[in-house]
Design goal:
Blueprint (H helix, E strand, L loop, with lengths): L2 E4 L5 E3 L3 H7 L7 E3 L5 E2 L11 H4 L1
Length: 57
């Protein structure tokens, strides 16, 4: 499961929680970082991040 770190408030979010979080809590989140691989994503590009190399291990 892909989990992101909110660049605005620091909360850890499962991928299916991100849209709701952005809509209600952190509307101006600058980036979302994948907790597993450390890559940074924009509000829209995180949706393309489906799995990490570390998840397969």
């Amino acid at each position: 499961m892909v989990v992101f770190h909110c660049g605005s408030c620091g909360e850890a979010l499962k991928k299916n929680q991100v849209d709701k979080h952005i809509a209600s809590t952190c509307r101006r989140v600058p980036t979302l970082s994948c907790i597993d691989c450390g890559k940074d994503f924009t509000r829209d590009s995180y949706k393309e991040h489906t799995k990490c190399v570390s998840e397969q291990e």
